[in-house]
Specification:
By secondary structure, the protein is mainly alpha-helical. 63% of the residues lie in helices and 0% in strands.
Length: 150
């Protein structure tokens, strides 16, 4: 009996998670201490046993089918909703940061492309200016001197 009592005081009865894990989630351990949280499941299972299966919603039907097949996949073993929400929000923040970085990368790539286009244009202008200096204004060469007859 002492081992069971100690287990109930140090682990969540439903998820089997050690008490210290809940330190990062204020109020979560108090909900579970001594197996309190397990009563919610017991009441839910009793509710399902007494309810007409024709009136089940999707969740009720799923849990009943799992229990009939001796499966416990629906129980939050080694997890709990506060942790899942926290991880999901961190994942969303990571995703948001990744999206921002991707946007910045795209903008940088666009600027690099624009710079390359400006560089090409400047090189063409410089080439035209050099060609014009060699050929002169009339296009006949001579370094820009007079091209008249006289």
């Amino acid at each position: 009996d002492n081992a069971l009592r100690e287990d109930l005081e140090t682990k969540c009865f439903v998820s089997s998670i050690d008490r210290f894990v809940f330190n990062n989630y204020p109020g979560e351990w108090e909900k579970r201490r001594g197996g309190k949280y397990a009563w919610n499941y017991l009441l839910f299972f009793t509710y399902l046993a007494e309810k007409d299966s024709e009136e089940f919603n999707g969740l009720e039907n799923f849990v009943t089918e799992q229990m009939e097949q001796d499966k416990i996949d629906f129980l939050p073993i080694n997890t709990f909703i506060a942790r899942q929400r926290s991880e999901a929000s961190r994942g969303w923040e990571d995703k948001t940061e990744e999206n921002a970085l991707q946007g910045i990368r795209q903008q940088v790539a666009k600027v690099e492309t624009d710079v390359d286009e400006v560089r090409d244009l400047l090189n063409k202008i410089v080439s035209l200016l050099r060609w014009n200096r060699v050929m002169g204004p009339g296009g006949g060469g001579g370094g820009g001197g007079s091209h008249g007859l006289g």
